[in-house]
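Worked Example 4.2. Consider the chain below.
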Amino acid sequence: MASTAKIGFIGFGNMAQAIADGLLCKNVTAPSQIYACAANWEKLCRNAEQRGITPCRTAEETAEHSDIVVLAVKPYMIAEVTAPIKNILKDRIVISVAAGYPFEKYEEILLPGTHHLSTIPNTPVAVGEGIFICENRHSLTDDELNLVQELFSRIALMQFVETSQLSIAGTVSGCGPAFASMFMEALADAAVMHGLTRATAYSLAAQMIAGTGKLQLETGEHPGAMKDAVCSPGGTTIRGVAALERSGLRAAVIDAIDAVEGPVTQ
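Applying the procedure from the previous section yields the following structure tokens:
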């Protein structure tokens, strides 16, 4: 059914567009299977035309056309947007990508028996290399869950976590691209300072990050062991590692997570 499932996006901002782009670039669905609505009709039409998908005037129209409805509006808009279409959503698979809206919140605003799953995706889904953090607690049937996994596992690592872990998992995967981009930019700045062109520096840094991540995923090797494998005794890499340690790289990364989540309390 995955090849024929119709997907409707209620809200078509950056995250919804990233998901749609991933589904299209990986040939998971055809453009004709994707519908979307948004507050700004002209902007929606432009974005829809670029992708060949169908723009809809209303959330009701989007939901009517869809097997899977992706709620992709701001969290404060969820209750208002879903209220007029509760009866339709009761017969659909509902996927939330709104941060801070776990299972219990949807149980309060959707009709009893609605099948829904809360997720937190990240923007690299646009190129089929993303992450979908998924709440362990959901109301999808086994067949519905299999369908969702069949679709979205083609564009992302799907990681199920407990409700209490949604925030931190979402921070690592959702804020991480910004942190990784800063590291990539810093590497490139240093490379440019030492004579590389900007384009070459960005290409090398980006592929290095992509390749290192893929290597860890495929081997399951501890990151420390991967680091050790590149550090020869007395070599250049270990000198760079030592410089990063002296500058507090690890502490800075941990502090960044603390700034988002708040410090760990005992």
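The chain has two domains: 7-161, 170-261. The first helix runs from residue 14 to 25. Compare this with Example 4.1 before moving on.
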